[in-house]
Amino acid sequence: MPIDGLQVVMFTHQDAAVWADLALILWAAGLRVSAAWTVLTERDRVGEGNYVQGTVLLVLRKRVGNAVGFLDDINADIKPEVEQQLAAMLALDDEDDPNFGDSDYQLAAYAAALRVMTQYGRIEDLDIERELTRPRNRGEKSVIQQAIENAVQIASHFLIPRTLHADPNTRADVWRDLTAEERFYVKGLDVESHGELRQGVYQEFARGFGLRDYTALLGSAAANEARLKTASEFKGALLGGAGFGGSLLRHCLFAILKTREDENAESGKAWLRHEIAAAGRGDYWAQRRTILVLLDYIAKLPTGQMPHWKEDAYWAQVLAGVVRNDRV
Question: DSSP string covering 77-133, please?
Answer without folding.
Answer: HHHHHHHHHHHHHHHHS-SSS-S--HHHHHHHHHHHHHHHHTT-SEETT--HHHHHH
